[in-house]
Structure formats: structure tokens, C-alpha cells
Amino acid sequence: MKFALFGGAAAGALFASHVALAAPEVKIDGSSTVYPVTEAVAEEFQKAKKGAVRVTVGISGTGGGFKKFCRGETDISNASRPILAQEMEACKQAGIDYIELPVAFDALAVVVHPQNNWAEVMTVEELKKIWEPAAQGKITNWKQVRPDWPDAKLSLYGAGADSGTFDYFTEAVVGKAKSSRGDYTASEDDNILVQGVSGDKFALGYFGFAYVHENPGKVKTVKIVNPKTGKPVEPSMENVINGSYQPLSRPLFIYVNRKAAERPEVAEFVEFYLANGATLAREVGYTPLPDAAYKAAWARFQERKTGTVFGGIPEVGVQIMELLERELKS
Amino acid sequence: MPAAQRSLIRPRIHHRDIRERLVEAFLFVCAASAVAVTTAIVVVLVYESAGFFERVSIVEFLTDTMWTPLFAEARYGILPLLCGTLLAAGVALVVAVPLGLTVALYLSEFAPVKVRESVKPFLELLEGVPTVVYGYFALLFVTPLLQSVIPDLPGFNVLSPGIVIGIMIVPYVGSVSEDAMRAVPNALREASYACGATRLQTTLRVVMPAAASGIAAAFVLGIARATGETMVVAIAAGQQPNLTLDPTEPAATITAYIVQVALGDLPHGSIGYQSIFAAGLVLLLITLLFNILAHLLRMRFREAY
Amino acid sequence: MASISPSIAVEPTISGVTEIRSNVARRRRWDIVFAVVGFLATSVGVVTLLTLFVDLLMDGYHRLTPDFFLSFPSRRAAEAGILSAWVGTCLVMIVTAAIGVPVAVSAGIYLEEYAPRNWVTMLIEINVSNLAAVPSIVYGLLALGLFVYALGFGQSILSGGLTLALMIMPVVVVATREAVRAVPHTIREAAYAVGATRWQVTRDHVLPYSIPGIATGVIIGLARAIGETAPLITIGALTFIAYLPNAPITTTPPFVNFDWLWSGFTVLPIQMFNWVSRPGTAFHANAAAAGIVIVVLTLAMNGFAIYLRYRLRKRITW
Question: Most buried among A272, A320, B51, C287, using CB within 10 Å?
């Protein structure tokens, strides 16, 4: 009898408390490329607030993140590419307005095993030959790409289909977003790709530069021939800033739910992000934007200006200065 | 008994009866929850898979050779995942069967009591280590070890987790085999010794054949365990769905695929989300098939005596 | 008189005896060979286990500082710790034990003491043994579809605890049944003889004797649950979590709250998985350290359970 009463009271309290106090929480999800920066910011932010605010960061991939964002399940979405037309539509239908804020620039790196001494320079055409859908099952050997390369199996590692990196790379290399061969190790989690390439002598992979920076000596970057100048350029902060690393330089964004921005914890987080983004981006290996860009983004956020400056269609080869101009103009 | 005293007794018995009934009802509900859980598993898997199969034909699912549900050109063939699962289980079995059988034979027929008593707890501990720790071991110890023996072995391959899973299930295969062998009546052994057979001959020619279906059941249960294994392959086999029979290549199993998708956390109702339930349904069917097979083998074995 | 030798010749000639002797000696040699092989095979398991421990210790021992236990995960490997992970494990285990143990023990008691021999009972028994064979990730799928979405519990400690409770049910049911079955009938009959009801017999006579056996099964079940990763990943336990759920007991009214049940969480095995997946050696050291904690925990629990079982066998005097 007593047990039953106690049980009933406990159950009641259980369900009642669900409505009651919960610490303020900021939910973030999306790109695994942007993840290292957002994670750093989240960590420093929570330290600064001494745990009074909770920040959770997931890695569903840019596409996955947008799906959740446009259902109102997250407050901020990490994105390694601008929002696409169908995602804009989904957000509009759900009544969600977003504030687009660039936070850093990435040099999308093509990597090989450290002992790979033949693939020092590659062209975009060669990459296309390897990665286009028609290569599935056919281009399986290094020799097939360039005759003077070794006759060895080509092991491929790349971003998964929910990843902004995937969208950007396929757009830049194959010419059409999301168009790729399927027989490679795909993962939204770039850590897996680093592990894969670093353990396989004949591997070729691609992922955000932060993961190269974080794992020195595990992988080797390949110089990409700039289609405009014809000169091989290696991915690095300087080459992104001076615009020579093309076409694989790309801006990284966070998208903030406008209604969520009205909550003090979310607004504080975003402001903290923009204020510290430069240092933290550099720390994890990405290229920070020029100060003017962060100031423009700050102003944009303070005004709660929604919408995107990119029109929802995939774009390749946007340079830092160009990005800045667009942000300032809008 | 006077009426007054009878009426004093009756209310207390009545109260007890209610309590007895309530207790029994509560206990029954708890027991029946096992049925409820099984039903729930089937319902959830079938319901979500139904959503999946509305968009993908079963024929395509069972015969297509590529699994790329999240691509623009999405392909939904379960064969690569199935292949990866069976390949990993196969490698595990190649390791577990000889090892497990030998261990079982040794412990039940040969080993002195002291050895058996001190070794068996160790083997039980082997089973108790969490699978994620085995995954760590496979990726960071076994794979480099194998790479020094097999040059050009990729960092993600099926061989390494397969071997580790095999060692992991040795206690399981071993103990089921041992049960089978212990059930062989001693009379058979003694008759064999009486004919002058050595211990090895008795073991190989009398005990093993007599326990054959029990041992076969052990193998089949081992396959079932290995196919359901998740973390070791998720960590060490890579996550590339690959239709291959070569264990030196990376491959994805059904279980690793589910983990990969769950980590990415697909939105409820999308086809990617439903695909993990379809894959899970296939996995459940395979596991159940193996378990039924093992059960039948065991039944046959029990009937012989 | 001809010797009763079942093997070869009838006449015990000198060459015949030698042949027999060499035959037997040869076969005995094989015996010894197999004994050695068997011993080696058995040692493979033991050696693997020891190698695994040594490997973990070598890789991770240096990370086992008090800071490690009190820090949150961090992007800087040297600062990362398992605070949110082990708190999460504790909280999930509380839910698992609170829900799983009573249900499973009750089920076991029902099946042993109350169940009549009819098809319903057989159905239940078949289901219990089936559930033991279901892969752990399928439990995760069940929880995802049922607890997280259909019932709306979300990706919370409550869902995680319920999932694991279902998973350990078969283990605990079997242990309960065996423990209850071991109690001799004479005790029950004596109790019935003095007019006890079935529940009184069970509660006051059978259960006290079977509690050590049940406890053994419960501890083994919980040890398994602590090491489970796959089902909790499937329901969405987070891999980056740098906060603790609200404490269940606070200094402000209403002093006890159940908020934490709905909180996101992570557990030790998932934290280890997350660190293993990162390519840096520094993170691998963290993974090894987390692995040491998990292994020590599970082995301690298993060892304690085995010890209990041993003590139980000695103490029983019917």
C-alpha cells in the first residue's frame, strides 16, 4: 500500500518536473568541417559562463544540420556551404528565418598518405576523372589517372552525402553538386577519413584543412593547380587569404534561427563566436576572415538581418574579399 | 464456530485474496512484458521498414549491388552490407571454431581440474570486456600488427576486427560445445577406454561425434553472435559499403551502417532514417534464422539420448 | 588361452607385442601433443586478455589523474576528461536498475513460482530466450522508434535507461529463475503447511534464500549494460557534451527533482568510442584511459558477482 502510494507520487513528480526548470541550452548541429571551430567556441563560452549555459554540438553534416534547423530542432546550424534553394524553401515553409554569418575560410585539402611520393601535384581534371560518377568501378588504379604513377590500387576516402564538404567538392571538381562515384569510404566524420588515409599507403582523400592541421604528419596535402593561373598551389592560410588556392577555398558559415536569437543565451553565444572566431579559427587551422568581415557579420547579427547573400545555388570559388563585399552590400 | 468469530476471520482472508491476486497479476504483467518487447521490436522494425519499402522496391533492395542511400543517385542494395556482415562473421568463425573447439575439448577431456578451475574464470572475463574496448584493441593494436605481416594492408580492413571478434566469442562457442560434450554419457567414454583407445582417440572418435549436433549448434550460435556485433567493426573495419569477399579491404556491416547513420542523426521520417530500420530488420531475420537453426540442432542432439 | 586383445593378431608373438606397444606409444604421443595444443589454444584467450590490458595500461595509464575524472571533454586532448561520461553512466544505470531489475526479477519469480504449464507460459519463455539472442543494436532501433519518437521521451537519460533495462532483462530473468529453483521444495511445503499464501511463501521464504543468486545475476547484467555502446549511440547519446544534467538533489525546493531524466547525456563507452575515432595519438591515450576505467569497473563487478556466487554456494546449508 505504502509502496503503491510512493510509486504514484514519484511517477507524478516525474512527469510534472518535465515542464519545470531546465538550464538554458543552445543547440547546434551541422557540418563536421565547421565543427572544430564551433566546438572550440562552445567550450570557451561554457567556461566563461561557468556552466550556466549548456551548448550541445552535433555532427550530422551540413545537409543533415539544415534538415534539423528547418524543422526548428536546432538553434544554430554549422554549414560548410551556403544554404541551398530547397533548404531555403523548407525553412520558409516552417516559418523559420535565418541569419547567415560567415565565420572563417577553409582550404579544402586533398590528401594522400605521407609516404606517397608520386602525387605531389594534381589538376582539377585529374580529380574529376577520379571522382565523377562514371569513374565508379572503372578508375581503380593510380596508373589510370596518370600513366607515370604506380600500378597500385586507388583507395578513396571522402565526405559523406550529408556533408557540405561533399556538396562543395563535387560542385568544384565534378561540376555538379552531389554528383559522385559511390565506391569510396564515405563519412560525415572527417576524423574517420584522416584515420583511413593515414593508414593506407595508396589512399586519396579530401576534407577540411583543420583536420590536416590537427593531425600533423598523418597525411600529406596535394598541391592543386589553379585553373586560372596554371600554377600548383598548396592549401594553407596564406594561400587562402591571397586567393591563390582555388577552386577549393570556401567560406564557412553559421546560420542562426532568428527567433532563437531573441533568447539571451543564444545571442550571447553568437556574439562570443564573432568576437573570438578569428583566434579560435586560426587555432584549429582555418583561415580567419579579415576584421572587417567579422564587424560586418556583427552588424548583420545586431540588426537581425535575415536571408542569404548567395541566392541558394551552389557557387564555387568565392574569395574572401568578394565575400566581404557581398556582406557589406546587403 | 460461532457466527461472531467467523465474521472476524472472513474480512482478513478477503483482504489477503485481493492482495494475492494483485501480486500475481503484477508478476504476470512483468513476465508478459517479454512478449511485449518482442512484439514492440517487430512492430517498430516492420512499421518503419514499410515506409522504406514504399519508396524502394524489395527486388532492388535485395539485388542491387550498391548501398548509397544518401547520394543524389541513391542506390539501395543491401548486398554490400550483407556481404560485409557475413565476411566479418566468416573471419570470426575461422578463428573461433578451431580455437573454441580445441579449448572445449581440452578443458572437458584433458585438463587437470586445477587448470580448468583457474582458466574458466579467465575465459568468462574475456566475454565480459566491453566491445568498444575490443574495437580499440582491433584498430590500434591488431591492425598495426597485421600490417607488419601483410604489407599494404589498409588501416581499415575486415581481417583485424574479424580476428578480434573470433577471440571474443571463443568462450561462448567453447562453453556451448563443452555443455554438449559433457552431456555425452560417461559410459561411452569408458567403453572406448576399455577397448584400449587413448584419450585423444576417445575424444575425437567417440565424444565429438556423439556431441556433434551440440557442437554444430555452438558454431551456429557463434555466427549469430558475430553477425550482431557492432562496435568492433564500426571502429576498425571502416565504413565503406563494399561488395567484396576479400577481408583485407575495408567494408561496412549492417550494424556499422546503423551506427554511422545514428551518429549523423537523421531526421525522423526521412528515407535515410527508415533505411536503418530496413537494415535492422534484415539483421534481425538473419540472427533469428541462425538461432532457430541452432535450436533445431540442439533438439536433435537432445533426442539421441 | 588366447589373450583377449581387441586389436590385431591372435597369437602374442614377440613381433606382435612390439607392434602393439609401438602403436599404443605412438597414439599416446599424439595425446601429449594434443594436450599441449589444447593448452596453447586456451592460453591464446588468456594471452589476448592480458595483452589487451597491458596495451590499455601502457597507452592510457598516464592520463588517469584526478583531473581526468573531473574535467569535461575538450578539443585539447590534454585537458579532456570523463566527467560528463561517468556521471552519465551513473545516471543511466540508476534508471536501468530501477526499472529493469524489478521487472525482470518479478518475471523470473512469476515463471518459477506462479506460472501454470500452459501455452501462455511457453510463449513467455520462448520470448525471453529470443530476447537474449537479439543483437544489441536492434534494441537501439526499438528504443529510437518507440521511446525517442513514439512516446516522445526524446534522446534522454530516460530513453537510455529504458533501453538498457530491456537489454538486461533476459540475463536477470534467467539468474532469478535459477536462484529461485535452487530453493528446496521442503521449505515451501513447510510454509504452506502452516497456512501461508503463495505470496507469503515467496516473499518470506523463497526470496530471502534466492537473493544472493539474484544479486549475482543483477550485477552481471548491470556490468554488461555499463559496457554497452551501440544501443545508446542509436538513440542519440551525444558525443560532445560539456555539461552535467541537473542534479537530482538540490538545495532549493522541491529538493528532489527528476529533471535529469530528460537531459541529453553521454556514457563512458561512447566517450571512448568518440576518442578512438579521432586520429590523434593524444586522443587515443584518452580513449585508453577511459577504457581502463570501463574495464576495471566491469571486471570489478563481474568479479564481485563471481565471488558472491562462490560465497553463496558455501553458505547454503539446507
Answer: C287
Spatial separation of the C-alpha atoms in residues C299 and C301, rounded to whole Å: 5
User: Per-residue DSSP letters for C131-186?
Assistant: HHHS-HHHHHHHHIIIIIIIS---SSHHHHHHHHHHHHHHHHHHHHHHHHHTS-HH
- Cα distances from C153 to residues A20, A54, A100, C146, in angstroms, run 15, 20, 32, 9
Nearest to B75 among A180, A182, A203 (CB): A182
Nearest 5°: phi and psi at A102? -75, 145
Q: For C265-309, what is each residue's pLDDT tens digit?
A: 888 998 888 888 777 778 888 999 999 999 999 888 888 888 887
Residue B1, pLDDT score: 58
ipTM attached to this prediction: 0.86
Q: For C181, how many CA atoms within 13 A lie in the half-sphere containing its CB? A: 9
Check residue A172 and report its DSSP letter. Answer: I
Burial B37-65 (b: 16+ CB within 10 A, else e): bbebbeebbeebbebbbeebeeeebeebe
Contact C49 B16 (CB under 8 A): no
C-alpha to C-alpha distances, A241 to A224, A291, A325, B176, C147, nearest whole angstrom: 16, 13, 15, 65, 49
A199 contacts B155? CB cut-off 8 A: yes
For residues A200 and B155, the answer to whether their CB atoms sit within 8 Å is yes
Cell of B117: 578451475
Residues B48 and C134: their CA atoms lie apart, in Å, by: 18
Peptide bond into C254 cis (omega under 30): yes
For residue B5, name the pLDDT band (cuts at 50, 70, 90).
Answer: low
Is C239 within 8 Å of C270 (Cβ atoms)? yes
Helix axes B113-128, C207-226, angle to 10 degrees: 60
Largest CA distance in chain A: 85
CB–CB of A249/A107 below 8 Å?
yes
Selected residue of B30, B170, B192, B203 to mutate for chain C interface (largest C Cβ count, 10 A): B30
pTM above 0.90, yes or no: no
Decide if B43 contacts C219 (C-beta within 8 A): no
Handedness of CA A112, A114, A117, A123 (dihedral sign): positive
Edge-first strand listing for the sheet containing A121-122: A121-122, A223-225, A232-233
Instruction: Nearest chain B residue to C28 by CA: give it.
Output: B198
Give the single-character DSSP code of C316: -
pLDDT in tens, chain A (330 residues): 455 554 555 555 444 444 334 568 898 988 888 888 898 898 889 888 887 888 888 877 788 788 889 988 889 999 988 888 888 999 999 999 999 999 998 888 999 999 998 889 999 999 999 998 888 888 888 988 888 888 888 889 988 777 788 888 888 888 887 788 877 888 777 888 888 898 888 999 998 888 888 888 889 999 999 888 888 888 888 888 888 888 888 889 999 999 999 999 999 999 999 999 889 988 888 888 888 888 888 888 888 888 888 877 777 777 777 777 777 776
Q: Are A194 and A32 in contact (CB under 8 A)?
A: no
CATH of domain C66-315: 1.10.3720.10
Angstrom distances, CA of residue A81 to CA of A56, A247, A248, A253: 21, 14, 12, 7
3-state helix, strand, coil in chain A (%, to 5): 40, 20, 40
CB pair distance less than 8 Å for B267 and A73: yes
Tell me which residue of A226, A196, A233 sits closest to A211, measured CA to CA.
A196
- Within the 39-58 window of chain C, which residues sit less than 8 Å (CB to CB) from chain B? 39, 41-42, 44-46, 48-49, 51-52, 55-56
Look at residue A57 in the predicted model and tell me its pLDDT: 85
Any bridge partners for residue A232, and if so which? A225
The backbone torsions φ and ψ at residue A112, rounded to the nearest 5 degrees and listed phi first, read: -135, 175
Contacts of C93 (CB under 8 A, 6+ apart): C161, C164, C222, C225, C226
